Amino acid sequence: MAKSIVTKTSFTAEFFDKIKEILLKNKTKFEKELKNQEGDGPFPDYGDSEEDNAREIADYEANLSIENDLLRSLRDVNSALKRIEKGDYGICRYCKKAIEERRLLARPTSSACVACKKTIIQEA
């Protein structure tokens, strides 16, 4: 059983245990995928022809994009885990209201409620 977490929301301890389990599984998965990315090397070397060089650049850019996505996902997971420990998990960072439980189960790294997220997307 996880240690007791003081929080500003009405979520149950079981809910936090479930979310924390999901986040920790995701963290392990992202760290493993990042380690696999590192094993592929920073820049592929297929040969010296122009065609090979173009393929090397395309693959490098694709690998870099994947690595950046993994780093961003890992950062989001770590941030959510810190919010759980601080007792701020499940609180919208914009309106300070509780984020819906359904949203958190669907996207455990969420730091904004649906209404605020929609507003942010519309303003972008």
Layout of helices and strands, plus pairs?
Blueprint: H1 13-39, H2 50-86, H3 101-106, H4 114-123
Write the CATH homologous superfamily. Answer: DksA, coiled-coil domain
- Which oligomeric form is depicted? single chain
What kind of sheet is the major sheet? none
Mean pLDDT: 86
CATH architecture: Up-down Bundle
Fill in the CATH topology: Four Helix Bundle (Hemerythrin (Met), subunit A)
Low-confidence stretches: 1-6
Separation, N- and C-terminal Cα atoms: 42 Å
Secondary-structure class: mainly alpha
**Count of individual helical segments:** 4
Question: Helicity, in percent?
Answer: 55-70%
Globally, the shape reads: elongated
Strands, count: 0
Q: Gyration radius, to the nearest Å?
A: 19 Å
Number of domains: 1
Which CATH class applies here?
A: Mainly Alpha
Helix/strand order, N-terminal first: HHHH
Which percent band covers the strand fraction?
under 5%
InterPro entries: DnaK_N, Znf_DskA_TraR
Domain Zinc finger DksA/TraR C4-type: 87-117
GO molecular function, one term: zinc ion binding
Pfam family, one: zf-dskA_traR
